[in-house]
Write a structure and sequence with these properties.
The termini are far apart. The chain has 9 helices and 22 strands. Helices cover 25% and strands 33% of the residues. The chain has a 6-stranded mixed beta sheet, sandwiched between helices. Strands 12-13-14-22-21-15 form a 6-stranded antiparallel barrel. With 425 residues, it is an alpha+beta fold. Strand 10 and strand 11 (218-223) form a beta hairpin.
């Protein structure tokens, strides 16, 4: 199966950049999810690789074949790229049986004998476990069974790559969970490269071997799911991935002689942040300044090109949200070089019998296996997850600590991650 390479791929309509100079390598037999908010460019990216959308510029390779190159004028049509496509709408013929739906494309291609078609249909129907429904019509099947028929039809021509555009969004929550497991198994059984579009970060985390997170047409991070979760590149990634969402806390302070950070958090509480790795804040600032200067020079150089079109949908700094009881009180001040943002995952907040800091239970939402707590510290609210069947009362006072060395520290100026570490308050 082939590797897919996108080199400097751009798609724009006028001055609206749907995809902005995307560079991406999708390895052979990988399961990559294109993740991001609505309108970020993930479906456009998928359609360009599949040949359903023509890029404005750039180069796309599938295996050894260049399927698009704007400079050389190459644009191989979708039906010659040997790829399969699975849509949100199953698009099954209502007047055809399951067998006829699966074999429809094979018969039209006129490449196969009747015996070969029968063998292929039996093989793919066995893979997705629908061989007992061959004589049924789509109206006689459940949503999950219809989805399996659509998958079997996609597998029948033996595509090199399978593209999926939010294929589970029409299913109910329980069936979506079952189909995620089926897709994982299908990926292993077929050995195909899967490229999957979703706005649901839970789907991306559970299915993918790598997540490609996009915002406003720009690649934000391309990593394994747990790397995206545990070490997000920036504030946007940290906020988008994770349920319940990450807690952001403003921190003001300087680096101590021992390399740790002395912070003031929650409007006056003293805290110490110990880096997981040796991190020099001064060196980080120098690197950050160099990156910003290089980006400015690159933009200036691009503006000199007569073919350059300035981006209308400007890339803006991510506006992170800090949960407060009174949103108008304790607003974040103007950022200085000594201002940072801490990112605390809910599972890092531990309720302890003594020590730590006092917090009031603002709300408690038990689900059986776990309880989601919203904890008030002064005017600030943190979200934590407590595992086990423990009952908490609203208004109850508890002691909390921040556990582990996976707390993220971000530059407030740029939003980039500095490092992870442990937090003591």
């Amino acid at each position: 199966m082939p590797k897919i390479v996108l080199t400097d791929v751009t798609k724009r309509w006028g001055n609206f950049y749907a995809v902005d100079h995307l560079n991406l390598v999708i390895d052979d037999q990988s399961f990559v999810t294109l993740l991001g908010p609505s309108g970020c460019g993930k479906t456009t990216t998928l359609r360009m690789i599949a040949g359903l959308e023509t890029p404005t510029s750039g180069r796309i390779e599938i295996g050894d074949q260049v399927v698009f190159d704007s400079e050389k004028g190459i644009n191989i049509p979708a039906n010659k790229r040997h790829v399969g496509f699975l849509f949100q709408n199953y698009a099954l013929w209502p007047n055809m049986t399951v067998y006829q739906n699966i074999s429809f494309g094979l018969k039209n291609s006129k490449k196969y004998t009747k015996e070969e078609i029968d063998e292929i249909v039996q093989r793919v129907s066995h893979i997705v476990k629908i061989e007992m429904f061959m004589d049924r019509y789509p109206s006689e099947l459940s949503g999950g069974q219809q989805q399996r028929v659509a998958i079997a039809r996609t597998l029948a021509p033996q595509p090199q790559v399978i593209f999926m555009d939010e294929p589970l969004s029409n299913l109910d929550a329980k069936l979506r969970l079952e189909m995620r497991a089926e897709l994982q198994r299908l990926h292993l059984d077929t050995g195909c490269t899967f490229v999957y579009v979703t706005h649901d970060q839970m789907e991306a985390m559970t299915l993918a071997t790598r997540i490609c997170l996009i915002d406003n047409g720009v690649l934000q991070q391309y990593d394994a799911p747990l790397d995206v979760y545990n070490r997000p590149n920036n504030l946007f990634v940290a906020d988008f991935v994770g349920s319940p969402s990450i807690n952001f806390v403003d921190a003001h302070g300087v680096q101590a002689e021992d390399g740790s950070m002395d912070f003031s958090v929650f409007s006056g509480l003293k805290a110490k942040f110990k880096f997981a790795n040796k991190t020099d804040i001064k060196k980080f600032r120098e690197e950050e300044s160099s990156l910003m200067n290089a980006k400015a020079e690159e933009a200036e150089e691009a503006s000199k090109d007569k073919k350059h079109v300035e981006k209308g949908n400007k890339d803006v700094k991510f506006n992170y949200h800090i949960a407060r009881v009174d949103e108008d009180k304790d607003a974040s001040p103007e950022a200085t070089l000594d201002d940072y943002v801490l990112g605390i995952r809910p599972e890092a907040i531990k309720v302890v019998s003594k020590g730590g800091i006092e917090a009031e239970v603002y709300s408690a939402m038990p689900t059986g296996m776990e309880t989601t707590l919203r904890l008030r510290i002064g005017n600030f609210i943190l979200t934590g997850v407590v595992f086990g069947g423990i009952t908490y009362k609203i208004g109850q006072t508890v002691n909390i600590k921040f556990e582990g060395d996976g707390i993220s520290l971000f530059s407030r100026e740029s939003g980039r991650i500095i490092d992870t570490g442990a937090l003591e308050v």
